[in-house]
Amino acid sequence: MNVDERTLARMATGIENRNPQALAMLETLEPGHARVVGITGPPGAGKSTLVAALAGALRQRGKTVAILAVDPTSHISGGAILGDRIRMQQHHGDSGIFIRSLATRGAAGGLARASADLARLMSAAGRDYVLIETVGVGQDEIEIASVAQVTVVVLVPGMGDDVQAIKAGIMEIADVFAINKADLPGADRLEREVHSERPEVPVVRTVATEGKGIEELLEAVEKQEWGIGNRERGSAQRAPGPFGPIFIDHLGIAVKSLDEAVAFYQRLGLAVSQRETVAHEKVRVAMLPAGESRIELMEPCEGESAVGNFLEKRGPGLHHVALRVPDLPAAIARLQAQGARLIGEPRKGAGGHVYVFVHPASTGGVLLELIEESSR
Question: Pick the residue with more confidence: 72 or 288?
Fold first, then answer.
């Protein structure tokens, strides 16, 4: 797809606004060949400067680049606070670099809800690289790993015990570590700490403001395997969907006795994280975390309920599969446009999450539950 920058910007706006026509148009585009690189890390790590430097190095190699910079949402306009556009003025006028600031719009995980779709658009538009810069992230904001093919985690000297504090989050999703501002005291200590936590992951020192280490960082990125889902970590479950990254939230299992079923799973080493009764579904549930996903055990409160009818007709067993999506309204609109059959309207379920069911006739025989990412 060959389009000028103005047309590409209009298409991006439609996708970011979750316009049904724009989303339908996206479905018709060829996938493209872009390499998607995520740049993430704590606030103040110099991610924007590093992204700008990487883009410049790629342009010197004759590559075209799209930069998707996720910024906080303005409380006044509802759009992105355009900090990254301002900091990347050095690339203004270069038609080989397309820069788009995205508002988080309340989405968790360091990304905007439209990030995956916009990366797909930029790839279809013929860009060689898509660089996605997350908003400043913390321990649990790791959604970039489900969109990017290679994730660069940017750290800075002087973090001290912060490496230990975040090691269960963004430290685990890194394919490459960049120690930026490496001319500051503490770079040696930080590199040792990173190596002790993730010895298999390459570490590159950079001083982005001076262009130091940029070629080395680009080479380290190029040496990685390209393709989402090849990482040996929890995020391997996640996969990009047409309305954003999706992954398995839980498996719903219908049981005759909640207490007996819970006892079995406890013998396996799983623990109940919550129990509650969902009155409108006439069901009692117990949630048991299993890795990044969960098992939902469901016992009917009375016979005349969906789960009660399921048990009567089929007996105990898998009742539904639940997928978590970052933008439930967009998912519903797209599925309805494709003729999928939904069961009822979105409502609140166990734990307060917003969900909707998709009829088995549309999914190949399995009841599918879609859950709003931000509501869990």
Answer: 288
- Does the structural domain 5-228 have CATH classification 3.40.50.300? yes
* Contact assessment for residue 193 and residue 159, using Cβ atoms and an 8 Å cutoff: no
Look up residue 376 and give its amino acid.
R
Kindly give, in sequence order, each residue whose CB lies less than 8 Å from that of residue 195, ignoring residues fewer than 6 positions away: 203
Quick check: 323 and 355 in contact, CB under 8 A? no
DSSP letter string, 233-262:
SGGGG-EEEBTEEEEEEEEEEE-S-HHHHH
Q: In the structure, what pLDDT confidence band is assigned to residue 140 with cuts at 50, 70 and 90?
A: very low
| pLDDT on residue 288 | 93
Whether residue 282 contacts residue 303, with contact meaning beta carbons closer than 8 Å, is answered with: no
In CATH terms, the fold of domain 243-375 is 2,3-Dihydroxybiphenyl 1,2-Dioxygenase; domain 1 (3.10.180)
SS3 (DSSP) at 69:
strand
- The CA distances from residue 325 to 216, 237, 241, 330, in Å, are 36, 13, 9, 9
pTM: 0.62
